[in-house]
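Entries read chain and fold; for instance:
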Amino acid sequence: MNVYDSARMADVLAPIGFTSCSEAGSADMIILNTCHIREKASEKVYSELGRLRHIKEKRLLDEENTIIAVAGCVAQAEGEEILRRAPYVDIVLGPQTYHRLPEMVARAARAGDKKNTYGRGVLDTDFPTSQKFDHLPNESSFQGVSAFLSVQEGCDKFCTFCVVPYTRGAEFSRPVEQILNEAKRLVENGAKEIILLGQNVNAYHGLDEREKETSLGRLINRLSEVDGIERVRYTTSHPNDMNKDLILAHGQQKKLMPFLHLPVQSGSNKILQSMNRRHSVESYLDIISDLRKSRPDMALSSDFIVGFPGESDEDFEETIDLIKEVKFSQAYSFKYSVRPGTPAGSMAEQVPDELKDERLFVLQDVLKKQQTEFNSSKVGKVLKVLLEKSGRHASQLIGRSQYNQAVHVNAPEYNLGSVQDVNIDSVLSHTLQGSIKKYVKDIEVGQRSEKTQGEHV
């Protein structure tokens, strides 16, 4: 979501003369787009601001001003604190207000001059989600052959460990026509794959042209009809919003990739209830079963929180049992991190850090083995790979398979942006190595034969 928002900030700033640059030391404006999910991410903001302060002061000596802005969820949650701890920050804006950046830049310029390093910064952390999308300009920045498209924002779930409802606001779904138009523009800019985004993306219920609510599954069917879109993905989903339309779409819609990130967080019903997740282990397993009936080759990913308050050894073992039953192709796992203002932060029975570390090591070892097993099962097979960018080595391209695996391929650059059949030759630590499957036509006198061979290009 933050990658998408950052690209849209560039679009908003372009009409007033800003273009992207690669070095902070020469930038007239620096925006930190932040995440508030974990404490470590939040503290990194203040560390980075200290570095940017030196850049700003050095440029002031040359009579060059630097506007420093903090955007995103840390800005939303800690706006006043940021201005107190870092008074050299010029703009603090929440994730729903970046469409007003040009106005904020003008206000920051009026608030002080080049000599005033510590003027009062502009603070804008309202929640006008619908207004934001209504006022964003058309996309001007190239995201790449795989492009993000935000269709839903906010969260009404209020999991006891999570700050998202407080930093992103209530659930909001964009109209279907607005999404289709943006998808077409992304294709015109070179996108082949569209990744639909939302804090609870499968809670999408935007209105179509007839003012009728549309589910995510039906939206995907509409997007699949857009010329130029070859692949569709979506993230992140909540188990409670996995409806029949979406499950059927995985079986029926060829452009929808057979990969799903579906966070479960814990394998213990006691902990899930304490988290206010509103799903059970049994209902989660039923969803997995239905998905695999609809699409037998479905690859699954998930999130796990280790050491949630009150988690016993038995609760942890139940999580390991769930992992072993589902068999994930990849997953994200974290130690529970107290987020200020959330109900879980004040719960009794906080788990000691040492025990969190032990459990996380065990859980990640199981997940790593499953990922290695899944990747190894693809050796000797042909995968469809969208080649997205050049690698570090000469004649190396990097792409993603239909199962969201990173694949390194030896091939010339003219293959960039295309979906290729790739023979998988080997498995590295977290990636696959392959070669393009080449079709060679041999023409003989009075006879044409076609043969297929795998070759390194």
